[in-house]
Amino acid sequence: ENIFDRSRMAPKTPIKNEPIDLSKQKGCTPERNPITPVKILDRPQPDPWTPTANLKILVSAASPDMRDREKKKELFRPIENSEQSDTPDSLQYDIVDDSTVDEFEKQRPSRKQKSLGLLCQKFLARYPNYPLSTEKTTISLDEVASILGVERRRIYDIVNVLESLQLVSRVAKNQYCWHGRHNLSQTLKMLQDAGELQYGELMTSQHKELDLEYKFGERKKAVIPDSQDRPLLDFSEPDCSSASANSRKDKSLRIMSQKFVMLFLVSKTKIVTLDIAAKILIEETQDTVDHSKFKTKVRRLYDIANVLTSLGLIKKVHVTEERGRKPAFKWIGPVEFPENTDELRGHSQTSDPLPETQKGACAQYLTSTAGKQRFTRHASFNSAQPCEATRRKVSSEPNSPRQERQDENCSKMINLASVCRQKIEEDTGSAKKSNITLPVSLLPVPGDSDFCVNTLPQAVFPVVQADVPSFSLPIGISSQASHPSMPAASKTENGKPTLVPNQPFLCFPSSSLFMLCGGLQENNLSEPLPTAGDLGSRSAEAQAAVPPTVCQKRSSQKCSSPSAPGDDEEPAAKKQTLEHSDLPISLVVPKKPSESPKAESSPGSGCSAAVHLETNNLDLASPAAPETANKESTKFLDCQEQGKQSQKKDPDDPPPGNEHISKENANQAFQQQYLYVQPTAGLSSFNFLFSANQAPGAISLAGNQLPSLSVPCVMVPSAALASFPLVCSSSFTSPLSPVPDGSFSAAASTNFSMSSLASTTPVFLSTTAVVTPKVSPTPSADPQQPPHPALHLSPVLTRSCSAVKLDSPVCMGHPVTLVKLQQPSSASLTPKSIRPAHHEAFFKTPGSLGDPVAWKKNEGNQTRNASSVQRRLEISSNSPD
DNA sequence: CGCTCCCGCCATGCC
DNA sequence: GGCATGGCGGGAGCG
């Protein structure tokens, strides 16, 4: 093994020149390698197995004296190796001479040779920029440190920066997973978006980077108090851990790195001076910048800059200002991030084979993300991330595994989310905006919009596009996930186009998902405020729009359940609610009823529509419903738009509840077609479709009675969703619903708990694939449920929104009917079973359910359905079948 | 002399 | 107490 590694490394490393010393060394000992005989590592190394094992052994053997020398030498070794290419290590070591060594020592490498930048290059040389998706490369800190001959501390510096760009992710204690640059563009995109949010305004207006930056600083202070700390991108996981530990500002280096990169991306000139960057960064963090802090910050920036330079993303330059010449860095990396979604799409849409895993991963990520968002992601996380978690555990994560994991997850999630979104968006075209609360905001991709949706004007978050595929996958998912390679292909295949276009319904893929997640978590948390605030604050501040979204969420929640915890907290949301109202309500009719079926069926399309009811909306909706119906078609778009907006907003809010909104029961109204409701804010992504016909009556849920009802159904975009696992209703547990917990939990993977939100809602679904199959099925899902479908709801509804919660089972692919929850038995689908279903994605309620097919037919709504509510989920695309 | 930034102390958290 | 992380800043190398 060792050999293997080395060979890998060595050859590749371009490494630069040898250290000066080397020359001398060589001189001295020409043939031999300079290598000193043994180098002793300070740290005892444990594993013989590891690649470095040999070294370690040797080292141990070595005398103490040697150590020192060796240490020095160590640096060289790598180089040598590379140069030599493969000299057998062992030999070299054996040979060593002291004398040689000494000389070496004397010559000791100059400081430059020990620079972090150089070290980083060596580090990077060891790993492929674009690793095969399948192969997962794990990085052992100890191993790398010993190989590169540096202290572990230095490796942390490198890894933390790389992690901020998602080139690597922490898997466990001392272990990182190398992802390569597959996701780099996505990550950058996300950062850019996030940066725009944060700094953008300023930037835009201005341009001068510097100046801007300064301004930013100021601005930010004002605006974003909270956010400051948070990493822009969550992936890092900023706080995920949050609760537990925010204490250490953790990962400030990571956060700083992200922010630093953001500054470049936002800057027109692409040049950022260190002092400005330092000021900005400090300001965010603190108001007063004291000199010492400034100096420290600058030091850190140098560290980061060195790594970024090694990555080829920036280069050092000097800017001459009035004050004089100042050190600065110029961004030389990619500026546009076209790729975006490809990969994502592919994956998600694909529905394919991979999908599961990927989806799972995505979902997880998403979930986590959502959770993460500031809060804790706990449950979701845990459940969600089985894979990763497992792995990690295995590896034994070191510290706060959870947190870290979470973080990681988060980041991954984020990535995924973004990816998903992108995909979705692309697919859909409309994309939604944002949903995600992620710290980073994702922007919708402008490009496609098949559908209609426009993006928000502001677009608060840009989505990142990119290829995300890799992201998470790698990590969380096991390998497969990675199909990164596929991206393109898949994309195309799956392509957004497919999805969206055909579908009758709208899908909101990603965004919705995201939102959901967020919301859920929040709910769970029940402390929306804070969280929201944080994230939101940033975003919110940045974006005025945001609020609305929040509102929506909240509103829905509120409506639905007063009790819902979340509600309170978010006053703003409430306010916003108003805004929501607009959106929420609108239902759109699916344009294509007929199509819809197809869509659903069609795998590719994946996303189909989802229907959403939102409680809040309900209120509105109910009345509105009719209107909506009419409008529907029009609305479609509108809704979407709204959704987008809302989504945007969401960002601020974290996650909370938006999704819930969906709960709204718009249903009533819609008869015939499905209505599409857009969720306002948070949900944005989710859409619910209801059959118009059915709804009303059948579903009692619907509106009338319950405004709050939440309908459980949600659609998720297929592809996009795929990734996500699911959503759960918050309440599963909850009281109300009888829901079997299991269902959700099963889903676990994703689970969120939305409970709070519960309000209603929710539910969701995700694509099948995404979901984990494993998960347990949602109970209700089934199609056939008993006839009650609606029933439950109603009652529930009545109770209260919150009560309602329906727990929805989540379904992964399938549409699940929430309703069923109550009846666990019936419904639950197993995941697997579901899958197939997914395609269709519809949920029907009891009545309807019968076949999916029927559904399709029904689109029109069938009578049967009428009674029951139908829900459809979309599923993803893919399908398997 | 000032820019860089290496080095490693030491705090924080989790066992 | 030990270990993994990683914040932090002294102070040295270099141009």
TrEMBL record:
Molecular function via GO: DNA-binding transcription factor activity, RNA polymerase II-specific; RNA polymerase II cis-regulatory region sequence-specific DNA binding
Sequence similarity: Belongs to the E2F/DP family.
Compositionally biased intervals (Polar residues): 81-90, 552-563, 860-881
UniProt-listed SUPFAM superfamilies: Winged helix' DNA-binding domain
Keyword Transcription tagged: yes
Cellular localization per UniProt: Nucleus
Domain E2F/DP family winged-helix DNA-binding, residue spans: 111-180, 248-333
UniProt feature, compositional bias: Basic and acidic residues: 65-77, 571-582
KW ATP-binding (keyword) present: no
Keyword vocabulary terms for this entry: Activator, Cell cycle, DNA-binding, Nucleus, Repressor, Transcription, Transcription regulation
Source organism superkingdom: Eukaryota
GO CC terms of this entry: RNA polymerase II transcription regulator complex
Residue span of region Disordered: 1-49, 61-92, 377-410, 528-609, 624-662, 845-881
GO BP term, pick one: negative regulation of DNA-templated transcription
Gene3D superfamilies in UniProt: Winged helix-like DNA-binding domain superfamily/Winged helix DNA-binding domain
Protein name per the record: Transcription factor E2F7
Chief location category: nucleus
